[in-house]
Design a protein that fits this description.
By secondary structure, the chain is of the alpha+beta class. It contains 12 helices and 10 strands. Its EC number is 1.17.99.6.
């Protein structure tokens, strides 16, 4: 395939991604992530993945997309905005992360990725590939950074100068050579330590290093056993996920409201009071969270999280 074709195809893909509602699209050459290998190995050796044993699996595949997709030539990284300024009606209710206000992003984004792959096959030709939304060992942030979509901040989130960090990441790995974005975005965190200072569980153990086993998102979602007693009074009212390190990030003053109807807040979620959450039944849980990412923690997990929250804090469980 000639250079001109690669350029034209890359332009077509980026325009199609924009039409499908993706916030941004970057393209990288499918190759071994040499810089990420020692970082991932050290992070795992220090047990910063907690009970997320799946992070230990497929180490080589996490670092080389060619082991995930036969003949892989390109990694198309995509971002989907989910920012909303909507808030829970009861300020004393247990808190839920913004990304879980609406429909489960896995399904919404996967549908968009499949549409993009279909467009590629229709307008460019038959292309082999796979779509990924937290569904396989892919280092989303590393690929997004490599394609120039942003930089990885001190809170380990990908940050964009234009839109902050309230967006999902996804990938389309295909066996087609394209024109690659080779200008990574410079780090613009500077001397700022707001995310480090604000984390109530001290999960950000150093600039750019997050101990996942201490993160509130991990404790309320990934952790299946009891939440360790050391985190009592440190959850800041969060019962599902946590937005603190993003809320304090200066770059998120540039966040813009999303335009994806599926991510509009479920009215029953934002309207629940502290007492409503405390008295939540499994039937109501199944009804309200049927299409929500919150179902990941299951009813028993949500009950555990709510009961663990500090009495007299953001949620009074008495």
């Amino acid at each position: 395939m000639c250079v001109q074709s690669r350029s034209a195809n890359s332009k077509l893909i980026k325009e199609a991604a924009k039409q499908l509602g993706f916030l941004f699209c970057g393209i990288s050459k499918a190759e071994f992530l040499e810089q990420e290998a020692p970082r991932l190995e050290l992070w795992l050796k220090k047990n910063m993945h907690g009970e997320m044993q799946y992070m230990e699996n497929h180490f080589d595949k996490r670092l080389d997309p060619r082991l995930l997709v036969d003949g892989a030539k390109s990694v198309i990284s995509l971002g989907v905005n989910y920012y909303t300024d909507a808030m829970q009606a009861d300020p004393d209710a247990p808190k839920i992360s913004r990304y879980a206000y609406g429909a489960d992003y896995h399904h919404v984004i996967k549908d968009k990725l499949k549409q993009l792959l279909q467009i590629i096959n229709e307008q460019i030709g038959e292309v082999g590939g796979r779509v990924f939304v937290d569904s396989a060992p892919v280092l989303d942030k590393a690929w997004a950074k490599k394609s120039g979509m942003g930089w990885i901040g001190k809170n380990s989130n990908l940050i964009s100068k234009k839109t902050g960090s309230f967006f999902f990441l996804a990938e389309l790995i295909i066996d087609l050579e394209l024109e690659y974005d080779i200008e990574p975005t410079a780090d613009h965190c500077g001397s700022c330590t707001r995310c480090i200072d604000a984390c109530p569980t001290d999960a950000i153990v150093g600039p750019y290093v997050v101990d996942g086993s201490r993160c509130i998102s991990y404790l309320t979602i990934e952790l299946k056993n009891e939440i360790p007693a050391e985190f009592k009074d440190k959850m800041d009212g969060w019962m599902f996920g946590c937005d603190i390190c993003q809320e304090v990030c200066p770059w998120n003053r540039f966040s813009v409201l999303h335009n994806e109807p599926a991510f509009d807040p479920h009215p029953d979620i934002l309207g629940l009071t502290g007492n409503d959450w405390q008295e939540l039944t499994e039937d109501v849980f199944k009804k309200v969270f049927q299409k929500s990412a919150v179902k990941r923690t299951k009813f028993s997990g949500l009950q555990r999280n709510i009961s663990f929250l500090k009495p007299g804090g953001n949620f009074d469980s008495q």
